[in-house]
Amino acid sequence: MALRLGQILRGARWNYLLVEDLGNKSSSSSVFKAKILLQAPTPTPPTGQWSLTFHFMAVIKTTSDQNGLDMLKREHECYQNPAVRSSWHLRALYDAINVHGPSAARASYCLASEWMDCTLKDLSSEAHRRSRVLHKSISKAVLEALHVLKSQHLVHKYIENDNILISGIHGQCPTVRLGDLGLVHSEGFDNHPVQPFAMRTPEVWSGKGCFHRSGMWAFAVTVSCSIAIVCVRTDKSSFSIGSRLVLLA
Fold first, then answer.
1. Coil, strand or helix at 7
2. Gene3D superfamilies recorded for this chain (predicted)?
3. What confidence tens digit (pLDDT) does each residue in 221-234 have?
4. Measured CA angle at 180 (ends 174, 184), to 5 deg
5. In this structure, are residues 248 and 139 in contact, taking their beta carbons and an 8 Å threshold?
6. Closest CA to 34 of 94, 98, 123, 100
7. What are the tens digits of pLDDT across the range 136-165?
């Protein structure tokens, strides 16, 4: 069942009004921005993990592809782990919703998650890419997220700039989360695909599997590439990437 703008999805926690089509992440998956319709008589932000960043908006992901559906269900399963669910540094999951059409075959499965303003990939401003505050926030959040996964013997197999999520980018303390937890597996996972080519670690290349250190490597390459873009575009002298990385310390 295809979702449409103006449709209301009914979740266990809240209802969600689809207000903007954010486009397809693939030919078989769709992403929407949704307004949260609180079911309580008085609108009250939730407590706990989301209370400081709650904006009454959510992102809705759905797919008609079996592989994509398996990934959404794996993401939902990942959040059943209390350590994952309670982490400030992993994108919050609000609801898993089955949207039923006229027949069971046309049902859609959706995840409603925390709304974030942009991804690291979206940052094009040189001022943002040069920001010490932003890069420190990114480093702290992602490293803490990876530590949480390690504590549960889990690994994120596909760290890249598209799943490092940012809100409040103009503030003094940007909020950063790691997303796409459908890509989280048990440590040692070695089924294809594992990690983008540019971020792939030696142990993955050699077939030993993906581990905590693999995620650390992939994140280091991801953030280095982000910084390197500034060096290439704005620094005419031979300015090394390594000297830029000092800003993260």
1. coil
2. Transferase(Phosphotransferase) domain 1
3. 888 877 765 444 44
4. 120
5. yes
6. 94
7. 999 999 999 999 999 999 999 989 999 999
